[in-house]
Design brief:
By secondary structure, this protein is of the alpha/beta class. The chain has helices spanning 14-23, 39-43, 52-57, 69-77, 82-85, 100-112, 126-131, 142-147, 149-155, 165-195, 200-208, 215-225, 235-251, 257-274, 282-302; strands at residues 5-8, 28-31, 47-48, 61-64, 91-94, 116-119, 122-123, 134-139, 156-162.
Length: 303
């Protein structure tokens, strides 16, 4: 018999993950702060919960996919949070991108009540979530990880495990450091090429045939060329992750100067109103800067 899954957080990645599990035959109970986001799941047979505690009370495994550390602490430890409803011996798996201090603290709190907490953040897009091809980094007790193996197999093509919860958290931060940095540099390359009269399609073709070839470059290059910034991952969330990365690096006494510069680009994107667009919208910050530079140069020449 399949474990009953409680799912809290039906956002950009959370919803296709929940839909994937429902499609794989897992009994589901769902909760989302904005109740309307649970409509599609309810229409397909999932049970609605009034709050995270109710979802936890009827589930063997509760999964959360929320926006940030504060949201995780609230759904876990709030008055009607997961911890209050979860039965002894059952498991809360958070799959969000949050800070290591939060995940380590939650692991300790759950352990004190003879309950399990895993942090298992994921790497992948909405499409990967729908197809069950995410990469999953799991931190926490081995026995809890093994009890969740069938869930992870449904959601991902690979999973990794560490006994220390925060190692999984830091692995995800390291991956997002690369994602944000590569996107920023790729956007710079596209803007530079455009100013030099090089068609984006030509640059993308060369990249595809070189050691730089990566599906993400091709996908983002096409969407940028089409001016399609429908979010797969919000620019505001990438800024949040840059903050998490730099904070974690400071605690580890690691200098990340390039990441600090990337954070400023995403901060500018959010300040310019692109926060709820895809993180590839950082290219618009660079495009606007290039236009302003040309205008300033022209004004200087006229003077």
């Amino acid at each position: 018999m399949q474990a009953t899954i409680g799912f809290v957080g039906l956002g950009t990645i959370g919803l296709p993950m929940a839909e994937r599990l429902l499609g794989q035959g897992f009994p589901m109970v769902v909760y989302n702060r904005t109740a309307a986001k649970a409509d599609a799941m309810a229409a397909r047979g999932a049970r609605r919960a009034a709050d995270p505690a109710e979802a936890a009370a009827v589930a063997d495994i509760v999964i959360t996919m929320v926006s940030d550390s504060a949201a995780l602490r609230e759904v876990a430890l709030g008055e009607r949070g997961i911890l209050s409803g979860l039965a002894t011996g059952n498991i809360h798996v958070d799959m969000s991108t949050v800070d290591p201090e939060t995940t380590a603290a939650l692991a300790g709190t759950y352990r004190e009540q003879d309950k399990f907490f895993l942090h298992a953040p994921v790497l992948g897009s909405k499409r990967a979530a729908a197809e069950g091809s995410l990469l999953i980094f799991a931190g926490g007790p081995r026995q809890a990880y093994e009890r969740c193996s069938h869930v992870f197999s449904a959601l991902g093509k690979n999973s990794w495990h560490w006994e220390e919860v925060a190692r999984a958290t830091r692995m995800k931060l390291a991956c997002n450091l690369l994602l944000g940095g590569l996107m920023a540099v790729y956007a710079e390359a596209l803007v530079f090429a455009a100013k030099a009269g090089i068609a984006p399609s030509d640059l993308m073709e060369v990249i595809s045939l070189s050691a730089l070839a990566a599906p993400n470059f091709q996908n983002k290059g096409r969407s940028i060329s089409q001016r399609n910034f429908v979010p797969n991952f919000y620019a505001s969330h990438m800024l949040k992750d840059m903050d998490l990365i730099l904070s974690a690096a400071e605690k580890l006494h690691v200098s990340l100067p390039a990441t600090a510069a990337v954070r400023e680009l995403f901060r500018a994107a959010v300040s310019s109103g692109f926060g709820r667009e895809d993180y590839s919208a950082v290219v618009k910050v660079l495009e606007e800067a290039a236009v302003c530079t040309v205008q300033k140069a022209a004004a200087s020449g006229a003077g």
